[in-house]
Write a structure and sequence with these properties.
- By secondary structure, the chain is mainly α.
- The protein has two domains: 156 residues, Serine Threonine Protein Phosphatase 5, Tetratricopeptide repeat (Alpha Horseshoe), CATH 1.25.40; 213 residues, no CATH class.
- Helix content is 65%, strand content 0%.
- α1 packs antiparallel against α2 and α3 runs antiparallel to α4.
- The radius of gyration is 27 Å and the shape is elongated.
């Protein structure tokens, strides 16, 4: 029998095993037969590690032993053996089973580090919480890792809330909207007009209207009564999306400067959180006075939420937005550097002193550049991988 023929046989056994386990495709549930076929496929893995169906069956055999299912008694040592083989083959999906074996020492010695690593490989936030508990309860003393896991959980929670409450639009839909809007613009022969913009104009806005606009937004958001964090970036788009939270005030340029300002002041806080953790980010917020602590449901608003998906189409509409963003960023970096040198007016001398003693200004400015560059890539191409909550530190 050739290799191809043997692999087809393994594929057939694998499909039959699943049918017998779950009673599908005309077969009655027969766990003994299912295990027999899973085992035959799994044993073939040693002969042909390139056979994906055989590799997949490794964890199915482990699962039967872990649960004591069908013809086999519960045997954690056997489950461990098969799960580990599946892990090595990159075919393990029951990470929590193997993690539990190591966490509780079932058929092996307790290994909390290994358990934590396995929980974090899972796709499920409940498993991440189990990893977090290992560190939170002091079973392993590693504050940095504890904070890392806590952050990851907070990010996922906020992602879920964002999708549920603000109406997530998939990248494919954004790309289609982009193409349609651009085609319509080309057909009409119209072009997008933006008033002249300069760094000096943004500085003037930042030092006067922006502070009042930001506080007005907070008051408006809470009175609006929902947790939608997106801004409609165009006056015209608000007519099409009246359910979206908007700051439709003084025209397109003013509106976009506000959006850029929100993006950049959040970025300033978040680069500190990224490099130095939540506590120093809190010190920055206390010392600087930016009203960001309660911006968002339980954490900090991520900059990507400043822009309503799809509204900046067509392309030449958001090219002007990108120009505002990049020009304004230069001033924000100067502003940020001055504040962190240690002699700026501040609202909390103790927090300010702690912050300025620790931070590396050059590293923080590099982070601002990196975040902004990635944001611009996302604006130009919605398929770009830009996590919604990259540096969203938890409030708990």
């Amino acid at each position: 029998m050739t290799l191809e023929e043997k692999r087809k046989q393994i594929e057939k056994w694998f499909d039959e095993a699943a049918d017998f386990e779950y009673g599908e495709n005309g077969k009655e549930v027969n766990l003994e037969k299912a295990f027999e076929l899973y085992k035959k496929c799994a044993d073939y893995y040693d002969v042909d590690p390139g056979c994906e169906d055989a590799a997949t069956c490794l964890e199915n055999v482990g699962r039967f032993y872990f649960e004591g299912k069908g013809p086999v008694a519960q045997d954690y040592s056997e489950a461990l053996k098969w799960y580990e083989k599946a892990l090595t083959a990159n075919e393990l999906t029951y990470y929590s089973d193997l993690a539990k074996i190591y966490e509780e020492g079932l058929g092996t010695e307790v290994n909390l580090v290994k358990a934590s690593e396995l929980y974090l490989l899972s796709d499920y936030i409940e498993d991440w919480k189990r990893a977090y508990d290992i560190y939170r309860t002091g079973k392993i003393n590693n504050p940095a890792k504890e904070n890392e896991i806590r952050l990851r959980i907070a990010i996922e929670k906020r992602n879920q809330r964002y999708y549920e409450r603000s109406g997530y639009i998939a990248p494919a839909a954004l790309a289609a909207a982009h193409a349609a809007a651009t085609a319509a613009l080309q057909t009409s022969g119209k072009s997008f007009q933006m008033p002249p913009f300069s760094k000096e104009l943004f500085i003037k806005y930042f030092n006067s209207d922006f502070h009042a606009d930001l506080r007005t937004f907070f008051k408006f958001r809470y009175s609006y009564g929902d947790c939608t964090y997106s801004f409609v970036m165009s006056v015209e788009s608000f007519k099409e999306n009246p359910g979206r939270l908007t700051m439709n005030w003084k025209g397109n340029l003013h509106y976009k400067m506000f959006s850029v300002g929100v993006f950049l002041i959040h970025t300033m806080a978040q680069v500190i959180g990224h490099l130095y953790g939540y506590r120093l980010m809190e010190d920055y917020l206390r010392a600087s006075g930016w009203p960001l602590i309660h911006c968002g449901a339980g954490g900090h608003m991520h900059p990507i939420q400043v822009m309503y998906e799809g509204v900046l189409y067509p392309l030449n509409a958001f090219e002007s937005y990108i120009n505002i963003l990049n020009t304004s960023k230069d001033f924000i970096k100067e502003y940020f550097s001055y504040f962190l040198l240690g002699n700026a007016p501040n609202l909390n001398p103790d927090a300010y002193s702690r912050l300025c003693k620790v931070v590396n200004i050059e590293a923080l400015l590099d982070d601002i550049d990196a975040i902004t560059d990635n944001y611009v890539k996302w604006i130009k191409d919605p398929d770009t991988d830009y996590p919604l909550m990259l540096f969203d530190y938890p409030r708990e």
